Amino acid sequence: MRICVIFNPTARGEKARRFRRHLDEIGAECALKQTTFAGGARPLAAEAIHEGFELVVAAGGDGTLNEVLNGIGDVPGGFERICLGVLPLGTVNVFAKELGLPSDLHRAWRTLRQGREDQIDLPQVTCAMNGVNEHRYFAQLAGAGLDARAIELVDWQLKKKLGPLAYGKKDEAIFLGREIAQHRDYSEDTAIQIDKEVKRIVNGGYENAKNLLSKNRETLERIAQALLEREVIDANEVKLLMEGKPLPEKPRTPPTTPQAAPSADPKVVRPELRPAPGFTRGENPAKA
């Protein structure tokens, strides 16, 4: 089986360094393709298909995996012509963990060499990128809104320093079956580094929020006054208020005609008592 491994030669982290130390060993059993720019794994994966490889391996994290996956999708019939493999060298490696792939480099490489195949779902999303519709495949998850924004704002240098956010492991007490303590499995130096970064992030966010509110105080007061007067304002009205323009006059609601209260039992029809024609109320008929 012809194998092509795509990797980032500048990737940091202990796993990436260990991989580079074994390049000669792995390279004797496959072809190696190095990325030279961000997003470079995608065209390399398409190139591997045209060169007749049967297995293309993403050596890296979930980002590298996504690039290789979309490179395969760029070639018509690419997913029928080649298989996708993973050497988990990233920080978290969510995809590899979900599939139960070994995290150890040598065990993962032996698994790939065995040639066992599994099928997975392959969702696709179409989104606007710089005004152009782009089709993207994803193997595990796609997010829009808060989670996507959180990933966009990740400090990648901090991520390389600290790795996954889940540093501690919960330790259950032997009585009552309740978790009353947490075991910390990281050093004091790492704890100090985490505290400093958290303090920097929180203080920076506070100052940014305070400056933003102070700078736009007049706009906030206009919006607050409009809400007091109208109770509800729509997006167009908010835009007018932010631009300092007056709101259009609120349409007046016509007065409603009071209606009789509905019956306590809506299923029962209560007829109105009216005298029959030619009769008045009472026992005596009216004169003709």
Number of helices: 12
CATH superfamily descriptor of the domain at 3-117? Probable inorganic polyphosphate/atp-NAD kinase, domain 1
From the alpha-carbon coordinates, what is the Rg to the nearest angstrom? Answer: 34 Å
The CATH class of the domain at 3-117 is Alpha Beta
Kindly state the mean pLDDT as a whole number?
Answer: 78
**What's the number of extended β-strand segments?**
8
Share of helix, binned: 40-55%
User: Which CATH architecture of the domain at 3-117?
Assistant: 3-Layer(aba) Sandwich
Concise account of the structure shown:
With 288 residues, the protein is α/β, with parallel strands linked by helices.
How does this model look, in words?
Strand 5 and strand 6 form a beta hairpin. The strands form three sheets. This protein has a four-stranded parallel beta sheet with strand order 2-1-3-4, with helices on both faces. Strands 5-6 form a two-stranded antiparallel ribbon. Residues 165-182 and 264-271 have low confidence and may be disordered. By secondary structure, it is of the alpha/beta class. The longest helix is centred in the last third of the chain and has 28 residues, at 188-215. It is built from twelve helices and eight strands. Among the domains are: 3-117, Rossmann fold (3-Layer(aba) Sandwich), CATH 3.40.50; 169-215.
Which descriptors would you attach to this protein?
288 residues; alpha/beta; Rossmann fold; four-stranded parallel beta sheet; two-stranded antiparallel sheet; 12 helices; 8 strands; 14% strand; elongated
Secondary structure layout:
Blueprint: E1 3-7, H1 14-21, H2 23-27, E2 31-34, H3 41-50, E3 55-60, H4 62-73, H5 78-81, E4 83-88, H6 94-99, H7 105-114, E5 124-129, E6 132-137, H8 146-152, H9 156-162, E7 169-171, E8 181-183, H10 188-215, H11 217-230, H12 235-242
Parallel strand pairs: 1-2, 1-3, 3-4
Antiparallel strand pairs: 5-6, 7-8
